[in-house]
Amino acid sequence: MPLYMGLERAGLSLHLSEHHGDASPGANVFVATENIREFHRELAEKQYAYNRPGLEDLPWGLQLQVNDPFGNRIRFCEQVE
Q: Each residue of 12-26: pLDDT tens digit?
């Protein structure tokens, strides 16, 4: 049976699946957000053994990448001026 996972946070609902035909594994999802530093601290406090995302400082802003169990990358981005 294919794996399925859904999550919801602050009005965003995201559904992830490994079911053949739903999408290609290894996809990227970009989520524009605010308060990314606070979100990063929250994830770091959970002490996940295999997914400890860093906060990347890019020319346009900040990015935090999480890898889901199906090989997809979820990138949370905050534009900083």
A: 887 777 666 656 667
The amino acid occupying position 39 is: F
Task: Give the CA angle between residues 24, 46, 49 to the nearest 5°.
Answer: 60
* Cβ neighbourhood burial of 17 (10 Å; 0-12, 13-18, 19+): middle
Q: Note the pLDDT tens digit of each residue in 30-80.
A: 888 999 999 999 989 988 877 788 999 999 999 999 887 777 888 899 998
Q: What is the three-state SS of the chain?
A: CCCEEEEEECCEEEEEECCCCCCCCCCEEEEECCCHHHHHHHHHHHCCCCCCCCEEEECCEEEEEEECCCCCEEEEEEECC
Which domains, from first to last, does the chain contain?
A: 4-79 (3.10.180.10)
